[in-house]
Automatic annotation (TrEMBL):
Stored NCBIfam families: TIGR00282 family metallophosphoesterase
CDD domains in alphabetical order: MPP_DR1281
InterPro entries tied to this protein: Metallo-depent_PP-like, YmdB-like
Organism: Acetobacter cerevisiae
Name of the protein this chain belongs to: TIGR00282 family metallophosphoesterase
Cited Pfam families: YmdB (PF13277)
Length: 271
């Protein structure tokens, strides 16, 4: 299965960076499954139902979220009727929506997509490791599903590495989100799970993690409440990772980053 995962979409330029390229990329890279993190898609904060619809119509199969899941309050009432939008699995019991979704591709193959959130330097949450173990007691890679994609939305690189290694051999891909900074450590772990600490963002890198520079810098320098942060809306980079898996085992065969447009060095998978 050929899977594309794109990191946090930030603002209008991030959405356009994705939507302008995805229809072509789906064909040229022969993608079977496209997953995007869209927790910052609505003007940097949250995801509106209308923008979610645009992303699905533009070629996205599953949307993941994170600590900004409910910044747009209309998502709270919407997520229950939109199962392909998932929020972190370790939110407390009773939280609207789900932390995972099993989707069926046009050819009948199945893929399970999961969103989890770290706890280091983040809001307190249930244990994401235990939540994953519980979920994976009901899903077997290569048996009940051909692929399992896990978005670990977390601040700390150590927690993300631990997450990848705990899940090694049991899922197809563990990819980090939330830092908005792509890491150069994409690799296949010893037992066959593809891993990258952070996919990076789809947004304008001439910014402070996607937000306009002046107010973001002032927050650090003046330590006074300032103006609300606004997404930078210049030339955006579409940033993410592509993985090819073996349908028989669900494990990764190849992994490569993708960065298109904007201010970062460009790269495209060569498989
Ligand atoms: Fe984010
Ligand atoms: Fe986040």
């Amino acid at each position: 299965m050929r899977i594309l995962f794109l990191g946090d979409i930030v603002g209008r330029c991030g959405r356009e960076a994705v939507l302008s390229r995805l229809p072509t990329l789906r064909k040229t890279l022969a993608l079977d499954l496209v997953v995007v993190n869209a927790e910052n898609a609505s003007h940097g904060f949250g995801l509106s139902p209308a923008i979610a619809t645009d992303l699905f119509e533009g070629g996205v199969d599953v949307i993941t979220l994170g600590n900004h899941s409910w910044d747009r309050r209309d998502m709270i009432g919407h997520i229950g009727s939109a199962p392909r939008i998932i929020r972190p699995i370790n939110f407390p019991p009773g939280t609207p929506g789900n932390g995972s979704i099993q989707v069926e591709l046009a050819d009948g193959r199945k893929a399970l997509v999961v969103n989890a959130m770290g706890r280091l330097f983040m809001d307190p949450l249930d244990d994401p490791f235990r939540c994953m173990n519980e979920l994976l007691s009901r899903h077997r890679l290569g048996v009940t599903t051909q692929a399992i994609v896990v978005d670990i939305h977390a601040e700390a690189t150590s927690e993300k590495w631990a997450f990848g290694n705990v899940l090694d051999g049991r899922v197809s891909l563990v990819v980090g989100t939330h830092t908005h900074t792509p890491t150069a450590d994409h690799r296949i772990l010893p037992a066959g799970t593809a891993f990258q600490t952070d996919a990076g963002m789809c947004g304008d890198y001439d910014s402070v993690i996607g937000m306009t520079k002046e107010p973001a810098m002032a927050r650090f320098i003046r330590k006074m409440p300032g103006e609300r942060l606004q997404p930078a809306e210049g030339d955006a980079t579409m940033c993410g990772i592509m993985v090819e898996t073996d349908d028989a085992t669900g494990l990764a065969r190849r992994i490569a980053p993708i960065r298109q447009g904007g201010h970062l060095a460009q790269t495209l998978p060569d498989f």
